[in-house]
């Protein structure tokens, strides 16, 4: 069984990216599982807090989910044409302490998708993640891109995916990513 951990980079209860992640989890091919992780409960990174109290429990939980997975799926919003601060903050915490960062990230395969209410999807956010992924020693999958624009129109008020074309694109993205993981 191929296991992927997916994390949405928004804290908002009605997040379009959380809805996209849930949709992706429901469209995995046979023999693959997408487990949903969360950045909720991760405090702002503070070296003094780390020194005084260690790694917060929410960070430890997400680290362990990622450590036992075959890959990571980052479902990224785009804030001000870049990475959402709360998402980057979570990754910064996950890289602590430095001696443990390689266990979580080095060589880990990763894919990026994202949804935005705007017309350009999350192209700039996805591009902004590339130097971070490179620094962490991850292996990004470049075999497909999924950037959902005008996302408010493809999900209903409950966050369910309504758009059949997007459903097929997401299913194909998942299938190709899982194939990449088998090589």
Features:
183 residues; 7 helices; six-stranded parallel β-sheet; alpha/beta; Rossmann fold
- CATH architectural grouping: 3-Layer(aba) Sandwich
Mean pLDDT: 97
Figure out the total of helices. Answer: 7
Tell me the total number of β-strands. Answer: 6
Number of domains: 1
CATH topology: the name is Rossmann fold
- Beta-sheet strand percentage? 15-25%
Q: Largest sheet, described in full?
A: 6 strands, parallel
What structural class results from the helix and strand content?
Answer: alpha/beta
Which regions are unreliable across 5 or more consecutive residues at pLDDT < 50?
none
Helix content: 40-55%
Outline the structure in words:
The chain is of the alpha/beta class. The protein has one domain: Flavodoxin domain (Rossmann fold), CATH 3.40.50. 42% of the residues lie in helices and 16% in strands. It is built from seven helices and six strands. Strands 1, 2, 3, 4, 5 and 6 form a six-stranded parallel β-sheet that branches. The longest helix has 19 residues. The two termini are 14 Å apart. The model has no long low-confidence stretch (mean pLDDT 97).
């Amino acid at each position: 069984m191929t296991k992927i951990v997916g994390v949405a980079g928004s804290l908002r209860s009605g997040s379009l990216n959380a809805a996209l992640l849930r949709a992706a989890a429901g469209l995995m091919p046979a023999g693959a599982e997408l487990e949903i992780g969360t950045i909720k409960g991760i405090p702002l990174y503070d070296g003094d807090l780390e020194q005084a109290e260690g790694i917060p429990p929410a960070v430890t939980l997400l680290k362990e989910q990622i450590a036992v997975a075959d890959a990571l799926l980052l479902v990224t919003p785009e804030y001000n044409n870049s990475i959402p601060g709360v998402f980057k903050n979570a990754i910064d915490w996950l890289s602590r302490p430095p001696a443990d960062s390689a266990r979580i990230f080095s060589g880990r395969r990763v894919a990026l998708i994202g949804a935005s209410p705007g017309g350009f999807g999350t192209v700039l956010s996805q591009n902004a993640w590339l130097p971070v992924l490179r620094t962490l020693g991850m292996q990004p999958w470049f075999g497909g891109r999924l950037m959902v624009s005008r996302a408010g129109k493809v999900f209903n008020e409950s966050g369910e995916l309504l758009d059949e074309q997007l459903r097929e694109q997401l299913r194909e993205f998942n299938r190709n990513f899982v194939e990449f993981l088998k090589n």
